[in-house]
Amino acid sequence: MSQRPPAPPSLQELRKEIDAIDEGMHRLLMQRGDIIDRLIQVKQTQEVGSAFRPAREASMMRDLVQRHRGILPLDTVESIWRVIIATFTYVQAPFSVHADISASEPAMRDSARFHFGFTVPYVAHFSAQAAVEAVAKSKGDLALVSATSSRTPWWLELEEAGAPKIIARLPFVERADHPAALPVFAVSRVADSALVTEVETFSVRVSGWNAEVARALSPLAEIVAVPDTAFDGAALLVSVTATSSIDKIKAALIEAGASVRSTALVGSHATRYTVPPTGSKS
């Protein structure tokens, strides 16, 4: 006589399993907090400014995408990890996020809250330059500014030694319908060992800027340009990948008829990491 198949677990049993998992996750978060507390004591993080670690965070978010599976949406998983990372960073060395809302206040607020949660103070500014200036006067704050357009050349404030620099491009993981899809640069002061330099960002001042010169540069690098009528030119923010170089950019400018007045390294960030609609990673 064949045995009956085991009865499926009851709703009460399944809910008990969920409760046990929830308790385990909470205990792990508290354990993580204990380790952070020890980290503060060992590294004395509070004495060196921002605890933001863009290289480590970019790597963590890529690993998260690579291992994720199941019915839980990637948006939810990413947002949970972003809150965990940002909150523990804040615990190590408190900081505020200064956001430029001149282009889109709702989109910038969504980006700040998605990537840094609600524990980190949020300060709105009506220009990118004001947000960057606030960070320059702070000990370890961070600014969020548009990575694709600007009304003012705010990056000129980053040229001097000791000034804050571009340290990340958010979101770390790009995909269609991302809940915080606005491309933004994060500007702050961090230790050199914490930086990721896959893409270098340069401030380039040129004379003779026009549409033809812009078309010549477009295949070589991502560029944000603010025209400068006083010099018949423009202030450029140029993102240079490993396949190019600032020397190639300068050569292309000269060949197209422009004159390069100055160049300065103003930061770096990880390469853009995208998840196509098919679900494959690149």
Question: Which features does this protein show?
Answer:
4-stranded antiparallel sheet, 2 domains, alpha/beta, 5-stranded mixed sheet, Alpha-Beta Plaits, 11 strands, 282 residues, D-Maltodextrin-Binding Protein, domain 2
> Beta-strand level of the residues, as a percent range?
15-25%
| Order of SSEs | HHHEHEHEEEEEHEEHEE
CATH architecture of the largest domain: 3-Layer(aba) Sandwich
Number of strands: 11
> What name goes with the CATH superfamily of the largest domain?
Periplasmic binding protein-like II
What does the overall shape look like? elongated
The CATH class label of the largest domain is Alpha Beta
Distance between the termini: 55 Å
> What is the total number of structural domains?
2
CATH domain fold name of the largest domain: D-Maltodextrin-Binding Protein, domain 2
* Physical arrangement of strands within the biggest beta sheet: 2-1-3-6-4
State mean pLDDT (0 to 100 scale).
90
How helix-rich are the residues, as a percent range? 25-40%
* Biggest β-sheet strands, sense, barrel: 5 strands, mixed
Structural class: alpha/beta
User: What is the CA-atom radius of gyration, in angstroms?
Assistant: 22 Å
Helix tally equals 7
Low-confidence stretches: none
Give an overview in words.
The protein has 7 helices and 11 strands. With 282 residues, the chain is an alpha/beta fold. The strands form 3 sheets. Strands 2-1-3-6-4 form a 5-stranded mixed β-sheet, with helices on both faces. Strands 8-9-7-10 form a 4-stranded antiparallel β-sheet, with helices on one face. The chain has a two-stranded parallel sheet with strand order 5-11. Helix 1 packs parallel to helix 3 (74-92) and helix 2 packs antiparallel against helix 3 (74-92). It comes from Bradyrhizobium canariense. One of its GO terms (molecular function) is chorismate mutase activity.
